[in-house]
Amino acid sequence: MLGLWRTFNSVVSYITLAVSLGELVGNGLVLWHLGFHMKKGPFSVYVLHLTTADFLFLGCQVAVWAVQAALGGQGGLYLTVPFVAFSVGLWLLAAFSAERCLSDIFPTCYQGCRPRHTAGIVCGLIWALTPLTVLLPANACGQLPGGTRLQTCPWFHTASVAWLLTLACGASVAGLVLFIWVACCSQRQRPQFYGVVLGSVLLFFFCGLSYILYWILSSSLDLLLSWVPMQSFLRQPYSLSPLPTLLACIHCSSKPLIYFTTGRQPGKREPLREALQRSLGEGAPLGAGEVSLPMGRM
């Protein structure tokens, strides 16, 4: 059974590597168009940063696979570093979903009261604060090299679990409220971004949530087994990582497909740039190098 489990883990690891390598290209194309070929509205800023976080997470997975293949071994560092990028993406998804929800339910108040650079400020704060919320609990609970297991570990771990679940619930609730509002309450035509938000939230619920639960489980096992004398033999939470990691990679790599399928026009071949702009709902079809942004520039 142990040999079969190792074979299964190896197969899943190779599939994860293939998915990560393939979708680095997809996320790279989205970054290229959003970063250099489209003027940025408030929601394209969120998508740009979200795609950057997904790109970093997939790149970390490729790097971790290469390091493990070359040096061998497993450890909390191989989980903690990619989880920083994944957590940034979770923060951004929650903020993006909440703002999109508010912009459709309260359009007049949203456009009149929203500060101009809200998206950029929010994204900057997320990138600055998220590493601390991941690395501090990981270090206190001994998941990083040289980390210590002090009496503060349960407090850090509890706070980490609380904010992760809060973010997951926030993104899910925002997507659910938007779905109910557009489907039942709104009299306007269904907006293009509706599919982007709903697809991203559903993708997180079915694929990304397992990675968060795995992070919580591995941290809990580290904390509990730190008092077991034979912890070097018993402590094997990282052997469970290939399947949640694969699902997390699918979650991060499928967003470009959602953007394209939501924005494209059936039966018409068009550049990815036009489909991106249409799916974000921040302009009319592209003209000769110009972009129309009714929500204003950032």
What features would you describe in this structure?
The protein has 298 residues and is mainly α. Helix content is 76%, strand content 0%. It is built from eleven helices and no strands. Helix 1 runs parallel beside helix 9, helix 2 runs antiparallel to helix 9 and helix 3 runs parallel beside helix 6. The chain starts with a helix and ends in an 18-residue tail after the last helix. 39% of the residues are buried.
Summed up, the helix count is 11
Unreliable parts: 227-238, 283-298
What is the multimeric organization of the chains shown? single chain
Distance between the termini: 56 Å
Largest sheet: none
What is the strand content?
Answer: under 5%
CA gyration radius, whole angstroms = 21 Å
Number of strands: 0
Q: Which term fits the overall shape?
A: globular
Assign a percent range to the helix content.
over 70%
Order of helices and strands: HHHHHHHHHHH
Structural class: mainly alpha
Mean pLDDT: 76
